[in-house]
């Protein structure tokens, strides 16, 4: 019975939906995390009677066809790149982005990764690095005698060196933005990679060309809404249960047919 296969595709799709929701909930406290959603499409249809086919020599036609679908499939899990709430941390090397930009991270293999996680540290050489120890691109080094490091909304990094009474500019943060942010490839560790779907990175200084400005002493939180995720989880559970009931009902119908024979 075809209903068994159709219902099984529905159960499989809802399993994938629950996996996506569970990942969102698991990352509710992940800095800069962007939630995903599952998108579905119906499968091919068996055309038994085509709409518009003629039913007589006088030109009358079928107003609505007879077609049976084959179920559903998961086609994409795009990220929702909306702005997350910013939270104060009181750490001078924590930076939040308010806008569409991404920090650029230099990977050991020469590639550039992109992240919304602005929790930076200094390595033994004073270079600003992320939590994996990968340096910012372009690199910024803060001397050991630097005091009062400040990062302006447009990305200018300054500090007082030694006994100086005027700040010294140490570098300039830059941000990248993409035409299609949802096309970025997730690589884990709060980082993304450029793809053909995302388009090339458009690099600018903060507060220009739509990249957004920077907020020192703050971090961007995940854009996961717990109420929305729980509601989506309940809906996915109900859909899964209904598909399971279809399989149970179809099985009972087949059993009844077998007994008649």
From TrEMBL:
InterPro entries xrefs: Flag_bb_rod_N (IPR001444), Flagellar_basal_body_rod_CS (IPR019776), Flagellar_FlgE/F/G (IPR020013), Flg_bb/hook_C_dom (IPR010930), FlgE/F/G-like (IPR037925), FlgG_G_neg (IPR012834), LlgE_F_G-like_D1 (IPR053967)
Where, if anywhere, are coiled coils annotated? none
Highest taxon of the lineage = Bacteria
Name all Flagellar basal body rod protein N-terminal domain ranges: 4-34
Which residue numbers delimit the Flagellar basal-body/hook protein C-terminal domain? 216-260
GO BP terms: namely: bacterial-type flagellum-dependent swarming motility
For this protein, the record's PROSITE patterns field holds: FLAGELLA_BB_ROD
Q: State the GO CC annotations.
A: bacterial-type flagellum basal body, distal rod
User: Sorted alphabetically, which keywords does the UniProt record give?
Assistant: Bacterial flagellum, Cell projection, Cilium, Flagellum
Compartments in which it is found: Bacterial flagellum basal body
All copies of the Flagellar hook protein FlgE/F/G-like D1 domain together span 96-159
Q: What Pfam family is a match for this entry?
A: Flg_bb_rod
Q: How does it assemble?
A: The basal body constitutes a major portion of the flagellar organelle and consists of four rings (L,P,S, and M) mounted on a central rod. The rod consists of about 26 subunits of FlgG in the distal portion, and FlgB, FlgC and FlgF are thought to build up the proximal portion of the rod with about 6 subunits each.
Q: Which NCBIfam families match?
A: FlgEFG_subfam (TIGR03506), flgG_G_neg (TIGR02488)
Report the family membership: Belongs to the flagella basal body rod proteins family.
What protein name is recorded for this chain?
Flagellar basal-body rod protein FlgG
Per the record, the gene is flgG_1
């Amino acid at each position: 019975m075809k209903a068994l296969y159709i219902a099984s595709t529905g159960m499989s799709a809802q399993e994938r939906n629950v996996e996506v929701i569970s990942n969102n909930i698991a990352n509710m406290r992940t800095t800069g995390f962007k939630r995903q959603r599952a998108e579905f499409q119906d499968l091919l249809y068996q055309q038994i009677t085509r709409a518009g086919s003629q039913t007589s020599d006088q030109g009358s036609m079928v107003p609505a066809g007879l077609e049976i679908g084959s179920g559903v499939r998961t086609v994409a899990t795009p990220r929702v790149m909306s702005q997350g709430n910013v939270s104060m941390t009181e750490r001078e090397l924590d930076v939040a982005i308010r806008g569409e930009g991404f920090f650029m991270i230099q990977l050991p293999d020469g590639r550039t990764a992109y992240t919304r996680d602005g929790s930076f540290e200094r390595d033994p050489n004073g270079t600003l690095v992320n939590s994996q120890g990968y340096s910012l691109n372009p690199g910024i080094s803060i001397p050991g005698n630097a005091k009062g490091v400040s990062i302006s909304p447009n990305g200018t990094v300054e500090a007082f060196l030694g006994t100086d009474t005027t700040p010294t500019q140490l570098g300039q943060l830059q941000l990248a933005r993409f035409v299609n942010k949802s096309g970025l490839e997730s690589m884990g560790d709060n980082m993304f990679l450029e793809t053909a779907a995302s388009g090339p990175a458009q690099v600018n200084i903060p507060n220009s060309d739509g990249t957004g400005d920077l907020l020192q002493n703050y971090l961007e939180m995940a854009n996961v809404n717990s109420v929305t995720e729980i509601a989506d989880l309940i809906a996915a559970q109900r859909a899964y249960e209904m598909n399971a009931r279809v399989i149970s009902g179809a099985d009972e119908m087949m059993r009844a047919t077998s007994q008649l024979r």
